[in-house]
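Lay summary

Proteins are chains of building blocks that fold into shapes. Our project writes down both the chain and a compact code for its shape. Here are two examples, one after the other.
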Amino acid sequence: MEVQIHWTYVTPNKQAVRLTSEWLEAKDALAVAGDFEKTGRTKALEFMDRNGTAWSKKELGKLLEEIAAEPHEVVVYFDGGFDHQTSQGGVGAVVYYKQNDRRYRLRANRRLSEIKSNNEAEYAAFWFVMQLLEELGVHHLPVTFRGDSHVVLKQLSGDWPCFEDDYNAWLDRIEAKLRELHIDPLYEPISRKQNKEADALARQALAGQLITSRMELTEKG
């Protein structure tokens, strides 16, 4: 989680000056703020995250304590598929994360009806990921999203426009959930080869093989 420090500093002639730091990891920002307070000239301190939420020093410290026991360092892979014969969609997701100093991998898929195309299945797959993150309790954190659907990722990042009403509805739903969970997204388009695990899960969903599993990863895993 990155924040900016907004520091109101009082000069020797009693003039209040408001300074804003660069983006810092929240833990580092708290340490810097502690140094500011040692000057004895701090009038006010506030921390602003990338979603525009303001935090006091006490609130930010408490949040970091809570996050330490919750999933963090989250990296997600997603993929969607579509069967033209059955008009069924399949979505797959793999979530890597750290919790209580241990690393985990969550694998899950789902079979969906009312999907009209392979493209729509990709949007549905991203929405499926958002549901998994909410269930895991991921919030107020950066999350890396990786998938071979460059269209979905480029549209979410704002690099490409979307002209389809149906797809825009998916994008609106996803972006609203990102804001609700205060997730700072990093979108990384990857190749199909790099997305094999999520692709396999989507295919298994289409075949009727539904999977939800979590495992702790060893150092070698």
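And here is the second example, written the same way.
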Amino acid sequence: MEIVILPSATEVGALAARKIVRLVREKPDAVLGLATGSSPLAIYAALAEHVRDGSLDVTGVSAFALDEYVGIPAEHPESYAAVIHREVTAPLHLDPDRVQVPDGRAPDLEAAGERYEDAIRAAGGVDLQILGIGANGHVGFNEPTSSFASRTRIKTLTERTRSDNARFFDRPDEVPTHCLTQGLGTIMDARELLLVAQGSGKAAAVAAAVEGPVTSMCPASILQHHRRATIMVDEDAAAGLTLGDYYRWTYANKPAWQQF
């Protein structure tokens, strides 16, 4: 894992976007994995700016979202289909036909999960998966005790996750109780992982994921076993890291040819 600590959430988003721009320039038909929630919003805003100024062409890019709520109408503003369209597809002018979201409204959710796995494989796999991290260490909606070998499937959301997501809904009881999410095994299949986190509320989860033991009680800790995982956090999210000074020094002294 490469740990990058930056002064602010804006700088996290800008550097993460620069890494994605470099990938797309090298591989115009890249397949991106998209996360929702507040963590990646600065990335998407920075990418949209690159598109506007002509420095990024995503005409050939395909994308797969990490997850979707179960049972929520597609037109609901907080369905992840709606969020991805609003925050990513429309601002970046991605081809909507190239952007897929798990079908949380399918009558057979198990079959829907299998179809999503098939679609990712048919696309050649994900080149770079964007990730956030929950306060309880979840990635995607893989809650604590999720299997490291899990694939796209239905999951029950913990009360902590539902409480954290209640800010996006009018009332707490409107937050769905279930989701369809890529599994940890699916996420780990991506050729590169990019996790971003901002704010002191994520500090404990980031420390557990980066420096703690690899355990299903902190699902994000499995990223320690990925050959190309980058963790970009702001100073507040880095507050719990024992080796924070080492990570800062390492990135500051990174050879120019390795920089994003």
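What can we say about the second shape? Residues 2-255 form a domain with the Rossmann fold fold (CATH 3.40.50.1360).
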